[in-house]
Amino acid sequence: MIIAVDAMGGDHAPPAIVQGAVQAVAESKDKLRIILTGKKQKIQKELKKYGWNKDLIKIHPASQVADSTVRPSQVVKKFPDSSLVQGIKLVKQGKADAFVSAGSTGAILSSALLLLGRIEGVRRPAIIVYLPVGAKGIVLCDVGANTEVKARHLLQFAIMASEYMNHMHGVRKPKVGLLNIGEEANKGREEYVEAHSLLSKVLPNFKGNVEARDLFKGNIDVVVCDGFVGNNLLKFAEGWIHHVHREVTSQLISDERNIDKSALNDIFTDIISEYEYEESGGSFLLGIKGICMICHGASPARAIKNAILSTAQSVKEKLVESIRVGISRTVAQIEII
């Protein structure tokens, strides 16, 4: 399989992107090949540091870079030869099976929608994030693509995220929860009340409303919400993890008791590291006719490597086709209701 990677996207591009790509090829158990899109000379300079295998990693030249200052809706029109747009075009042309970028989330979303289009029946694409909670983990959808939603959008988020959990994490019948301010069916805004009713009728594995404090109990596999709520919840969680890590480290340093501080700190650090975004690599954009992975802008090489490997797995699992089937089946059900 072939993964197109935006070598110029992110705070640490291209060094971290190139290093991550090299590591992904080295660790992949599949026949993985990568196309790095971006400024050829800069990419070559980085590749030469790692004994570049030209059969496994190729360069697709792109003269432009679409940074975060560019309006997302204008990227395709004003930056057609950007590393981001060229990478998505490789997927559209069938020259790559998926696309990975640590560039602007808005630019990736807008460009993917325009160039690849939505899966038939999908009303709104959504961004998901996987959280390693409990034995199986949970997936949160949406985390930034849609700040305003309707009940049917939330239903489709649940379907797409369930397919992800099924194929990527082996959860055959994911339990779905609707993130809300209370467990009662009549809680929350109108669209959430409507969504509760709709999900109850359509999804056999819908378990009702869930509150944010209950997400770590491991009783739910898929949590759906609008992108405004999801994005803020995700960023709060990221900040809280770092805050707790700093506080524990500070307390261990200042504590005067005769305890093995080094061992305690190592254990705590190992636990915290499981929740770092670097572990999963990034977030999938679901609902479009192609696989796109959106990485954190500050992604180091390890995050890029994991993002590429996860993306390769999604290609192998035929995630897009599974979502298409799931959405098609549900559209037919809704028409009956």
Task: Give, in order, the helices and strands.
Answer: EHEHEHHEHEEHEHEEHHHEEHH
User: End-to-end span in angstroms?
Assistant: 41 Å
Largest sheet: 11 strands, mixed
Mean pLDDT: 90
Shape, principal axes of CA atoms: globular
Approximate strand percentage: 15-25%
The CATH topology of the largest domain is what?
Answer: Isopropylmalate Dehydrogenase
Tell me the helix content: 40-55%
Written description of the protein model:
This protein has 337 residues and is of the alpha/beta class. The chain folds into two domains: 1-122 and 287-301, Isopropylmalate Dehydrogenase (3-Layer(aba) Sandwich), CATH 3.40.718.10; 123-282, 3-Layer(aba) Sandwich (Isopropylmalate Dehydrogenase), CATH 3.40.718.10. Helices cover 47% and strands 15% of the residues. The chain has helices at residues 15-27, 40-47, 75-78, 83-92, 105-115, 151-169, 190-202, 227-254, 261-273, 277-280, 301-316, 319-336; strands at 2-6, 33-38, 57-61, 98-101, 126-131, 138-141, 176-179, 206-210, 222-224, 282-286, 291-295. The protein has an eleven-stranded mixed β-sheet with strand order 3-2-1-4-11-10-5-6-9-7-8, with helices on both faces. A hairpin with a 4-residue loop joins strand 10 and strand 11 (291-295). The radius of gyration is 21 Å and the shape is globular. The relative contact order is 0.16.
Outline of the structure:
The chain is α/β, with parallel strands linked by helices and 337 residues long. Helices cover 47% and strands 15% of the residues.
